Amino acid sequence: MNAQTAEEFLMEIQKKAERGELLYIGKELRRIDDLEKVLGSPIYTNDLIPRNTLYARLVLSRYPHAIIKNISVSKALNYPGVRYVLTYKDVPGLNESSTIIPDRPLFAFNKVRSTGDIVAAVIAEKPNRAQEAKELVEVEYEPLKPVFDPIEAMKPDAPKIHDDGNIVKHVKVRKGDIEKGFQEADYIIENTFRTQHQDAAPMETETAFAVPRGEKILIIGSMQTPHHVQAAVAKVLGWPIDRVEVIQAVTGGAFGPKSDEPPYDVASIAALGAIKTGKPVLMSMTREESMIAHTKRHPAIITHKTGVKANGKLTASKVQIVLDGGAYASLGVLVIVRATFHANGPYEIPNVWNDGYKVYTNNTYTGSFRGFGAPQAIFAAESQMDEIAKKLNMDPLDLRLINMLRPGSRTSTGQLMDESCGLPECLDAVVKASDYRKKKELYSKQDGKIRRGIGIAMLHHGNALGPEGNDYAYVHLSVEKNGKVHLGTGLTEFGTGAISGLAQIAASVLGVPIDYFTIDRPNTLIHHETGPTVASRVIAIGGNAARDAALKLKQKLLPVASKLINCKVEDVQIVDGYVYCKGKEHKTISWEELVKEAYEANIELNTLGYYMAPSCKWDEETGLGSPYNQYTFGAAIAEVEVDTETGLYKVLNYYVAFDVGRAINPKSVRGQIYGGTVQGLGYAMMEELVHKEGYVVNPNLKDYYIPTSLDIPEQIQTIIIEKQGSMGPFGAKIVAEPPVVLPAPAIRNAIMDAIGKGINSLPITSEKVYKAIKS
Amino acid sequence: MAYEKVEVYSPRSLAEALEILSQKKEQIKPVAGGTDVMVMLKDGALKEKELLNLSYIPELSYIKEKENHILIGATTKYREIRRSPIINAYAPILIEAVRQIGSPQIQNLGTIGGNLGTASPAGDSIPPLYVLNAKVKLQKVGSAREVHIDKFFLGPRKTVREADELITEISVDKMEPGSYYFFEKLGLRSANAISIVNAAGILSLENKTIKYLRLSLGAVAPTVIRATEAEEEAKGKELTEDLIERIAKLASEATRPISDIRGTAEYRKKATYGIVYEALYKILKGYGKKIEYGFEKIS
Predict the structure, then answer these.
(1) A135 and B186 in contact by Cβ < 8 A?
(2) Is A713 in the B-facing interface, judged by CB distances under 8 Å?
(3) Which helix (DSSP H) or strand (DSSP E) does residue B253 occupy?
């Protein structure tokens, strides 16, 4: 046997990939799961519910901050159709529903800290019965003094929301000598930026369906990370985790909150209800429950102080970020890490001083949401760049060209950018596509009541988890006797197309068409715990595991093929489902024949691929080091038209380029860019979940506005740049999150170009634009 | 309490509906498309325990001409108004407004009578009715009366309709051939948005001189209002940029807005100036919409 080693084979595949010879990489294949979604097939959790199911509804806190004196459920229990009312007393294990810091009970017991706190859950035969009986759960409160402003909450004498102070996490970056940097500057520019609560508004709300199964419980639900839900439910039940089986159902949008604590709540409540009643229980949040009780994007107050020389060179950047964390820590303690590390934007600045705080308040809690701190940080950083350019009387493009990250520059944490830094290419692409220089010139000569403007925003985005946790993944491949390939993993599909991308990678390595693949539903009983499906990491991390599994499978098959077609192992070719010997393309056998032979030779076609990213090193005190293994880069240019008499504006065109390393499926990449752009457009222009004294004023889709098709620019031009990264398969970088980041600063800067004034708070409503014009 | 049991009466004729109403009076809520009432029901904001469903009364849904008027049955859906050749020919301003109401789904269900019954100051079909001199027909057992649209609304969600009366018909004037018209709306997004300010106007020009301007404003006072001072100012004058500025200013001064999560009172007042200015400016510059009907056109 003269089999290639895995390393040799890998090198060959890499070379092929570089020459563009891999069959399915870079191809716009159809996604494996698209047809049933387009047909509206009954695939979601709510479609699976049998007749004897009971329904749960949440009793939420009436106060943003209060002591609970007493809870009485007897009236609710006597209401027709009600089968059980769950409170903290019914939790046999730990009354806790937290990700990182154990600060959030599943059911409030001694006090409530926000109006999103769950006090009880009514289980009834019909959803309306549960809804009606909610009002009969009597809770006696003693209101406490609340605090809603995170800056107020940071003060030592502020009302305490938990036992310790209200600053739940403080992240620092200390690079160079900040005072020296300001001394070297010719100008110092200071500004404060504010962002709002954004709701992810997935089409499907948080949903879990629990079926009691003797000693075990089965949970089917809408979520990003079934293994985390499994552990959370087991903790609440006080059971070993193997008695809890969690299946991720087809999930109708997630965007981050479904990787945070809300799926723990619905799964735990459905499970407890099912155990108490012996019946299946569906806990599916209403839109109102969801918008009050799930995590949202953190509002932020960000102050920038920047030193710059008259020639445009940045000398110092001091940034403070305060995130309104609401009542609980959630994944927000990691959100502030990403926000702080990206706070200065994609620029080389010798002296940096960043402080990021996640602060408790009595607002509803905030956490993981597409972008994970970057939308706030980059909105502020990129708005600040245009304020600096204005001060210097310099084109914002030139200021960026002087300072942006390039191969050889260092980030705010001192990380060296290698050849995979595609930021210059991204900026160049959008400048050319938009004809920026010409339009800038043209728009500077306008008068009249309708004005146009053009604005730029850019970003770097640390890939995958980095400082947020161990970045590993398992992907399981098994081949049936008929040649069909099963791909199984605890990583989940919730609309991104990434899992199809895993199959595309495995198909490329194996040499069989993607039609041979089926993707198994993620199930904690079957699939390995594989870390969370977050941080856009499925392709970059999971893709390596898929490639590993496919390589291992191929190692098993090549010797079989060698014997079968009488060919040296290194000459065996598997291409598009056909197997032949190099140079003898006319004599082929099929993939099916090869697999059949392997089965007959008693070779197990079952492999587990694994990948663990290199660990990231940085200093906790100074933030210095390399917190991420590789970066995605992006640039966008927005063009707006502003009506100066009403402040109403339209985004006319949007040009956006992303360096994604390598586009495994360009159609999916563009899909992520379009979707992220539209969600980012909503963040920029209209979305705000308004809190008034701790109460959500607009927890429904009639008062909370997300963009409709008519709000989308006529042209969203996407450009894909491929500067291969060191970590992802075939050089791939992550793409799902960064597109949501750029619209807000690009639109803000375009409006500033049009009206001469910057708007430093989101969302940019026509009213804010009007006030800026008339001020 | 939300989801409480509600009883629904579904009469098959107007006579039957009026009979039920005469007995139940304020205990029953008339409902047509349900695009407002069903939301109130779900939010627990509906005080009535019974619904009078008007969906099965064909005689309440029609659009017909009568001399210089158009008669519209109360349960005529927005979609039917959009598609009506009669309205297209004689009152296109109504189409201009109706196509900006909610989403296609809402237009498929919502009715013009329902919009009047809900009496939101931000209702988008209402400002055009003001400039079309609409009259609302209210019927009860044994009698009927007509109320001019100016007198129909008393305040937000309040009208002169008595508990035993039903809105059965809206009659509007046909627009004069050659007149200009507009419906402008400012919302937080481009579609399916509640108006922060809206304005409807009909401008009749003779050469360059204004014969009359009719201008109504929505979402800027407890009811939709006519900007009468602005209308007076316009009469008999030549349409110029200066005049447009004065008209827009008077329109803005006529408003009495409130602040809510969609916008502040101050902004509503100022934006009124902006949308009125732009609408008239478009006409001045030759981009205005103009009604040009003749009998040959719709035959």
Answers:
(1) no
(2) no
(3) helix B241-253
- Residues A473, A542 contacting (CB under 8 angstroms): yes
Q: Indicate the residue of B2, B192, B278 with minimum beta-carbon distance to A131.
A: B2
With CA atoms as reference, the chain A residue closest to B262 would be A703
- The answer to whether residue A198 sits within a structural domain is no
Task: Give pTM, 2 decimals.
Answer: 0.94
Distance between CA atoms of residues A355 and A685, nearest Å: 28
pLDDT for A498-544, tens place per residue?
A: 999 999 999 999 999 999 999 999 999 999 999 999 999 999 999 99
CB pairs under 8 A between A and B: 70
Question: Do the Cβ atoms of B73 and B136 come closer than 8 Å?
Answer: no
Shortest CB distance from B186 goes to which of A135, A648, A709?
Answer: A648
Length of chain A: 775
- Given A597, A612, A627, the domain boundary residue is A612
Contact between chains at A770 and B186 (C-beta distance less than 8 A): no
* Cα A400 from chain centre: 27
Q: Are residues A560 and A683 in the same domain?
A: no
DSSP per-residue letters across A676-711: HHHHHHHHHHT----EETTEES--STTTS----GGG
Domain that holds residue A12: 6-30+472-612
CATH number of the domain encompassing residue A394: 3.30.365.10
Tell whether A226 and A138 lie within a shared domain: yes
A14 in contact with chain B, both atoms CB, cutoff 8 A: no
Residues of A in Cβ contact (< 8 Å) with B270: 770, 774
Compute the distance between CA of residue B127 and CA of residue A247 in angstroms, rounded to an integer.
53
ipTM of the complex: 0.91
Tens-digit pLDDT profile for residues A738-748: 999 999 999 99
Bond preceding residue B30 cis, omega within 30 of 0: no
A135 near B CB under 8 A: yes
Q: Do B274 and A128 touch (CB under 8 A)?
A: no
Query: Is residue A355 domain-resident?
Result: yes
Ordered per-residue pLDDT tens for chain B, 299 residues: 445 679 999 999 999 999 999 999 999 999 999 999 999 988 888 999 999 999 999 999 999 999 999 999 999 999 999 999 999 999 999 999 999 999 999 999 999 999 999 999 999 999 999 999 999 999 999 999 999 999 999 999 999 999 999 999 999 999 999 999 999 999 999 888 999 999 999 999 998 899 999 999 999 999 999 999 999 999 999 999 999 999 999 999 999 999 999 999 999 999 999 999 999 999 999 999 999 875 444 43
The C-alpha atoms of residue A75 and residue B15 are separated, in whole angstroms, by 44
Whether A541 and A687 share a structural domain: no
Domains annotated on chain B, with CATH: 7-53 (3.30.43.10), 58-173 (3.30.465.10), 180-298 (3.30.390.50)
pLDDT(A287) > 60: yes
Indicate the number of domains in chain A: 3
CA angle at B164 for the pair B162 and B166, rounded to the nearest 5°: 80
Whether residue A485 is found in the same domain as residue A544: yes
CB contact under 8 A, A690 and B261: yes
Q: Which of B3, B189, B270 sits opposite A708 (nearest CB)?
A: B189
A242 touching B (Cβ < 8 Å): no
Cα–Cα distance measured from residue A215 to residue B298, given in angstroms and rounded to the nearest whole number: 75
Contact of A286 with chain B, judged by CB distance below 8 Å, is answered with no
> What are the two backbone dihedrals, phi and then psi, of residue B246, each rounded to the nearest 5 degrees?
-65, -40
Look at residues A612, A631, A659 and tell me which one is the last residue of a structural domain.
A612
Residues of A within 8 A of B269 (CB-CB) are none
Whether A693 contacts chain B with CB within 8 A: no
